[in-house]
Amino acid sequence: MSVMVARKKVVRKWEKLPGRNTFCCDGRIMMARQKGIFYLTLFLILGTCALFFAFECRYLAVQLSPAIPVFAAVLFLFAMATLLRTSFSDPGVIPRALPDEAAFIEMEIEATNGTVPQGQRPPPRIKNFQINNQIVKLKYCYTCKIFRPPRASHCSICDNCVERFDHHCPWVGNCVGKRNYRYFYLFILSLSLLTIYIFTFNIVYVALKSLKIGFLNTLKETPGTYPSTSLTVLTVLEVLICFFTLWSVVGLTGFHTFLVALNQTTNEDIKGSWTGKNRVQNPYSHGNIVKNCCEVLCGPLPPSVLDRRGILQQEESTAQEESCPRGPGAQEPTAAQGPGGQAEESSAQQKDGSLPHLSAVPVPSLSNAEMPEEKQLTFGELPVPSQDTGQAEH
C-alpha cells in the first residue's frame, strides 16, 4: 500500500539571501564571492612570517634576546585574528524590502510625487533627515527597494546595501562597514607594525652576520636543510616584500587614522560629502579627536540585522510503500460489494432520509458455523424475540 508522507526539509535563510556573497559553516562565515586577492594576502603574510621564524628568529634569539620571536608571534597572531574577523563577518548588510513593503513604499512615492507627465524625468527619491540640527538626505535604493539609512551605500560588488559603508576591500575579501571597520583598522595597524618589525630585524640579521664573517661570506652562506638555496636570498626576498608592503600598508594605516580622527568614512571622503563646494560640516563629528576615536573604535558594536541562520521549512511529499501483516482470513478494509461486484452504500442513511435496507448494512465476517446457535442468522433476516422463552427464533 502506497501512502504519501510529508517531510519537512530544513532550509536556512542564508541559502535564499539575495546579493553576491558566499557563506560557509552553515551561514556563520560571510564573504564576497571574489576571494582570489584574499588568498594572496594570506600567502604573503604566512610566507613572510614563516621565513622569518624559520631562519632569522633562531639566530636573533640567541645573539640578541629571546623576546624577539615572542613579540613577533604576538603581532602575527593579532594580525591574523583581526584579518579573519574582518573577512568572515557581516559588515552591516541591510536586508532588502519584502514584496509587500516594496509595494507600499512605491505607493507612498507615487502619492507624494504625483503623476509625472510623459517625457519628463521623475523627481529623485530622497527623504530629508535631521542629524545634529543639520539636514541629511536619505537616498532610495532601486535594488533593495528601501531608503538607505544615513551613511549607508550600495556595494556594486556584493550587491547589498551596507550600513556606514566605508569601502569594499578585495585584500580582505569583504566589504568594510559598521560592524567590521574597527577590526579592519586594527588589522592594517598590526600588519604595519609587523612589517616594520620584520623589515628592521632582517636588516639587523644581515648586519650581525656581516660583522662576524663578512658581507660576501654572508651572501654565500647556505642553511644545512636547504643546501641549494642561499639563506641570504630568502632574507633579501623578505626585505623586498616588507619594503613594498610598507609603502601601501603603512600609508593606508595613516589615511584611516586621519579618517578615524574626523569620524569620516572613505566613501564620504572620496565623494567630498563634507568638504565639497557646499562646505557642509560633518554632523557625525564630535569636534574632538579623542571622542571620535572612542566612538569608532570603542563604541558598542550593533548586532547583525541579517538573519542568516534563521530556518525556512519547505514541505516535500514522498510516496512510500507500506506492507501491513494480515492473517489468512483477513480482508481489505473496503466497502462491501454486492453480487455484481459494485460497492454497496455503507452509510446509515440514504440521501432521501430513509433508512437503508438491511441487505445494505455490512454484516460480520464470521460464518454461521462460528456463531452461537441462538445467534445464527440468515442474511437479510432479523431476530424476533419469542413470547415464551425470550430467545431468538428463525
Index terms:
acyltransferase; disordered C terminus; three-stranded antiparallel β-sheet; lipoprotein; transmembrane; alpha+beta; 394 residues
Helix content: 25-40%
Radius of gyration: 40 Å
Total number of beta strands: 14
The parts where pLDDT drops under 50 for at least 5 residues are 222-229, 332-394
Strand order of the largest sheet: 4-9-8
The major beta sheet can be summarized as:
3 strands, antiparallel
Strand content: 15-25%
Mean pLDDT: 75
Query: What is the string of helix and strand elements?
Result: EEEHHEHEEEEEEEHHHHHEEE
N/C terminus separation: 42 Å
Q: Please give the count of helices.
A: 8
Pfam families: DHHC (PF01529)
Subcellular location: Endoplasmic reticulum membrane; Golgi apparatus membrane
Family: Belongs to the DHHC palmitoyltransferase family. ERF2/ZDHHC9 subfamily.
Protein name: Palmitoyltransferase
